[in-house]
């Protein structure tokens, strides 16, 4: 080997920390194994693929535990161990727990849904796509360079398109997948153009190096880098379903299989928000005066349009429970944007970001719980209208009480203490950053949301119209409802379990 080739070979050799990358790696490997096994498993044993996928996701969650003892990084530059492509720190582990835990609960919902032959869902392909998307979503919060960030974003998104449109012969599912695909491809194209401008201006893809170099770019490149920052933020705003980039959400959630809608409502949002946090807080802190006001305006607009949209659903005669949850999720996205915007004005950006992490963990638990109950009702009521929940307490009192608890958590009312505390934490982040006007907008939106959350809750306890239908709860669905209920009750009893992220060093 020539002397010139030796340094190049040394730079190409990477020492891989397999423990650090174990959570997304396990999900990806199990996904490939399930796809191959599907070729050899007969139709009577297809259910084994689902349970293997559930076991794989559970193993991925368990592999987060050994990483709690300290930050770990891998795929680092040979000459600079502090510049890495993959870092497992507190922020990464919190989002990976949300993503993999959310995928695990969606998998439990899917085991029940796939038993129904009328759904027309091919099992092997379904589990492969779900695990592949979960692997990409788990990789994204650990990404510390723009190339890995975009690759993780696409690995999380591309299988999700197919999951939405996987139901054979369903026109509504196909339309939903097309809308989701077109909006997401547009977002990716805009993000890639923005990232290319940032790379052209700074000469690096590593987030920490971008943060250092972007402050000293040549004056002739100022317009280029500013355009790159704006385009990158617009691309991630699409992924978070922020207004005005939210138009795909209601139709996609309604057209997708319900477990997929539940997955997108939590994991899809986690992907967008974690990417947005990494780009703004780590790579572009020097441009806080640009992205701060933009995100504050997006937060106000998103929560208002989402909650008003949910409120307007009640004007229709037979509005869908899933569509109502879709509009609600847009409103919740507005709340999640508030602390990120506040980070631009705060002296302690990590505390503001911690408020978003805490709120996201609360939202994931209770929103997945609401979707789990919707999956139960949807087994006997194909249209899954909100009116179908009337008198649920008379036929299934435990499930009705749990749904009421989940809705009260989303509304931020006792006994849903975790929802109240999470909203107070987000509200405080806005006030502490001097965004009093945004805190007022949030308070108004919380009041608006109370109306449709409480109306749905009250409907559960009214006398049923006609003959009451008893809902039989399959074991996987029971497990999903139980896990979300335990999490929601535990967090309401000990909210510090997630609220401590607001006072923790995340990066």
UniProtKB/TrEMBL annotation:
Membrane topology per record: Multi-pass membrane protein
InterPro entries named among the record's database cross-references: NADH-Q_OxRdtase_suN/2, ND/Mrp_TM
GO terms classed as biological process: ATP synthesis coupled electron transport
Keyword Lipid biosynthesis: no
EC number: 7.1.1.-
Catalysed reaction, written as an equation: a quinone + NADH + 5 H(+)(in) = a quinol + NAD(+) + 4 H(+)(out)
Keyword annotations of the record: Cell membrane, Membrane, NAD, Quinone, Translocase, Transmembrane, Transmembrane helix, Transport
Transmembrane segments: 20-41, 48-68, 93-114, 126-143, 149-166, 178-200, 229-249, 261-284, 290-312, 324-345, 357-377, 398-422, 434-454, 475-498
Segments forming domain NADH:quinone oxidoreductase/Mrp antiporter transmembrane: 143-448
Presence of the UniProt keyword Transmembrane helix in the record: yes
Gene Ontology CC, one term: plasma membrane
Primary localisation category: membrane
Subcellular location: Cell membrane; Endomembrane system; Membrane
Domain of life: Bacteria
GO terms assigned for molecular function: NADH dehydrogenase (quinone) (non-electrogenic) activity; NADH dehydrogenase (ubiquinone) activity; quinone binding
Entry's family note: Belongs to the complex I subunit 2 family.
Record's function text: NDH-1 shuttles electrons from NADH, via FMN and iron-sulfur (Fe-S) centers, to quinones in the respiratory chain. The immediate electron acceptor for the enzyme in this species is believed to be a menaquinone. Couples the redox reaction to proton translocation (for every two electrons transferred, four hydrogen ions are translocated across the cytoplasmic membrane), and thus conserves the redox energy in a proton gradient.
Self-association and partners: NDH-1 is composed of 14 different subunits. Subunits NuoA, H, J, K, L, M, N constitute the membrane sector of the complex.
Family annotation (PANTHER family): NADH DEHYDROGENASE
Protein name stated in the entry: NADH-quinone oxidoreductase subunit N
């Amino acid at each position: 080997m020539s002397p010139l080739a030796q340094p190049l070979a040394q730079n190409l050799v990477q020492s891989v920390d397999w423990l650090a990358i174990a959570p997304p790696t396990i999900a990806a490997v199990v996904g490939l194994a399930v796809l191959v096994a599907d070729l050899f498993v007969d139709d009577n044993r297809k259910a084994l693929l689902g349970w293997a996928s559930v076991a794989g996701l559970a193993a991925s969650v368990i592999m987060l535990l050994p990483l709690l003892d300290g930050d770990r990084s891998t795929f680092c530059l040979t000459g600079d161990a502090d510049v890495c492509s993959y870092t497992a720190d507190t922020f990464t582990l919190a989002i990976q727990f949300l993503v993999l835990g959310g995928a695990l609960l969606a998998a439990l919902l899917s085991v029940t849904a796939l038993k129904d032959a009328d759904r027309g869902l091919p099992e092997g392909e379904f589990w492969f796509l779900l695990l592949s998307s979960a692997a990409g979503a788990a990789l994204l919060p650990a990404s510390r360079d723009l190339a890995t960030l975009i690759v993780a974003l696409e690995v999380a998104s591309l299988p999700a398109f197919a999951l939405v449109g996987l139901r054979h012969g369903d026109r509504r599912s196909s339309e939903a997948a097309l809308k989701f695909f077109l909006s997401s491809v547009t977002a990716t194209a805009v993000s890639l153009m923005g990232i290319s401008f940032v790379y052209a201006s700074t000469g690096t893809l590593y987030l920490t190096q971008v943060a250092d170099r972007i402050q000293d770019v040549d004056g002739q490149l100022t317009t280029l880098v500013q355009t790159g920052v704006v385009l990158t933020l617009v691309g991630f705003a699409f992924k978070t379903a922020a207004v005005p980039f939210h138009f795909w959400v209601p139709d996609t959630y309604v057209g997708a299989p319900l477990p997929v809608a539940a997955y997108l409502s939590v994991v899809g949002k986690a992907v967008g928000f974690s990417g947005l946090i990494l780009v703004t807080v780590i790579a572009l802190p020097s441009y806080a005066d640009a992205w701060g006001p933009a995100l504050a305006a997006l937060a106000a607009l998103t929560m208002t349009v989402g909650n008003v949209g949910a409120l307007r659903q009640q004007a229709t005669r037979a509005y869908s429970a899933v569509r109502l949850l879709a509009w609600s999720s847009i409103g919740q996205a507005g709340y999640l944007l508030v602390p990120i915007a506040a980070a631009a004005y705060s002296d302690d950006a990590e505390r503001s970001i911690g408020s978003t992490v805490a709120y996201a963990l609360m939202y994931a638990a209770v929103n997945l719980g609401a979707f789990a109950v919707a999956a139960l009702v949807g087994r006997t009521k194909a249209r899954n209208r909100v009116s179908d929940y009337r008198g649920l307490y008379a036929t299934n009192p435990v499930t009705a009480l749990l749904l009421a608890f989940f809705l009260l958590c989303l509304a931020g009312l006792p006994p849903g203490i975790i929802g109240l505390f999470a909203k107070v934490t987000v509200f405080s982040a806005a006030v502490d950053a001097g965004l009093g006007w945004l805190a007022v907008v949030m308070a108004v939106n919380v009041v608006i949301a109370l109306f449709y959350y409480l109306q749905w809750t009250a409907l559960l306890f009214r006398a049923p119209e006609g003959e009451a239908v008893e809902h039989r709860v399959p074991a996987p669905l029971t497990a999903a409802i139980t896990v979300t209920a335990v999490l929601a009750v535990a967090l309401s009893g000990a909210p510090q379990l997630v609220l401590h992220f607001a006072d923790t060093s995340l990066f």
